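About this split. The held-out portion is used to measure sequence recovery: a designer receives only the structure tokens and must propose an amino acid at every position. Recovery is the fraction of positions where the proposal matches the reference. Here is one held-out target exactly as it appears in the evaluation file.
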């Protein structure tokens, strides 16, 4: 299937995943049209414009459906007006299954990339996600385990597709030495699980935390975790510099990444850290350990004690740490950019088209 143009749907703020996909499609010569969910929120009912009512109805598909029917019509009209024969949707936010069914009837291929866990009890699960995914031509997700679960849920073409590295968003920081600050950095959002983990870690290692204001308001007052918070988040190039400058970059998988009791999936931080030239120490789990073998291109831990042991080891083994960083960056730059990902998506569409024609 030759794809000359594609409509990307999602949120197009500066640090959004959607921007990385757009740059990759543009780089390989595919014309991109954009439908920004944020700019179109005026078409949503009052229910979903309010974050509190949105949360209260997160498990009620019937109530939510009434609230975003007009939005789905606007989306369908925008896709058809663009002339694109492929629509690529990130998160499938507020789009009804019947809208995707209508688009497919009119010859539009629907590709859906879901960057979170769509199954209950994960906090990221929405009632409309699985029914809408069942109407897609291709459903992409960051976890092999979740891909199998989607298949069991009746989604016709679920495929494991990891996130990638966008060198424009997280540029390689080769102009400065890796680990000029001999400590551990954590860059990410607050949750109680992460706070407890980092509170224990901060007793033993030098730690800096960058993230939104919840680190200053929801952490225990006067705790080590709150004192380690640097008072601000880091994005894009600023985050890339901190990843390179810190001896160790910590990645803590969240509860939605624990699938059937086991950590799984290759998330954005797995690619961004080595892409920027940082040393990655992550929760041990499927997907990541397959693509980035332990001790070769990344390091992993299964609990606080092992995490501290790994940090102590690599803080004092500068040459070993930097050799691993170089191998990890080479692997990401060679095989795991978003250009690699969009080329894979187009091959999957070709394969799907060939089966449909046979």
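Reference sequence for scoring:
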């Amino acid at each position: 299937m030759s794809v000359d143009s594609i409509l990307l749907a999602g949120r197009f703020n500066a640090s959004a995943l959607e921007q990385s996909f757009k740059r990759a499609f543009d780089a390989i010569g595919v014309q991109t049209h954009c439908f920004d969910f944020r700019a179109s929120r005026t078409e949503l009912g009052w229910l979903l414009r309010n974050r509190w009512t949105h949360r209260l109805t997160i498990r009620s598909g019937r109530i939510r459906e009434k609230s975003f029917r007009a939005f789905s019509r606007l989306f369908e009209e925008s896709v058809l007006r663009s002339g694109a024969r492929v629509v690529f949707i990130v998160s499938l936010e507020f789009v009804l299954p019947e809208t995707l069914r209508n688009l497919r009837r009119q010859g539009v291929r629907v590709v859906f990339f879901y960057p979170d866990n769509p199954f209950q009890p994960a906090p990221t699960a929405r009632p409309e996600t699985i029914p809408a995914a069942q109407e897609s031509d291709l459903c992409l997700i960051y976890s092999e385990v979740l891909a199998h679960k989607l298949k069991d849920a009746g989604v016709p073409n679920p495929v494991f597709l990891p996130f990638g590295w966008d060198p424009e968003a997280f540029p390689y920081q080769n102009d400065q030495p890796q680990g000029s600050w001999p400590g551990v950095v954590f860059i990410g959002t607050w949750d109680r699980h992460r706070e407890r983990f980092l509170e224990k870690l901060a007793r033993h290692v030098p730690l800096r935390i960058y993230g939104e204001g919840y680190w200053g308001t929801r952490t225990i007052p006067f705790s080590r975790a709150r004192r380690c918070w640097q008072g601000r988040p880091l994005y894009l190039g600023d985050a890339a510099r901190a990843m390179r400058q810190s001896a160790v970059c910590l990645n803590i998988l969240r509860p939605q990444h624990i699938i059937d009791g086991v950590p799984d999936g290759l998330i954005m931080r797995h690619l961004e850290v080595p892409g920027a030239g940082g040393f990655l120490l992550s929760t041990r789990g499927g997907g990541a350990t397959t693509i980035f073998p332990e001790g070769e291109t990344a390091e992993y831990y299964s609990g606080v004690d092992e995490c501290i042991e790994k940090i102590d080891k690599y803080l004092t083994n500068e040459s070993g740490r930097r050799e691993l960083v170089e191998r990890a960056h080479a692997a990401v730059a060679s095989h795991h950019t978003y250009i690699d990902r969009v080329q894979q998506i187009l091959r999957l569409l070709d394969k799907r088209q060939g089966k449909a024609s046979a």
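Annotator remark: The radius of gyration is 21 Å.
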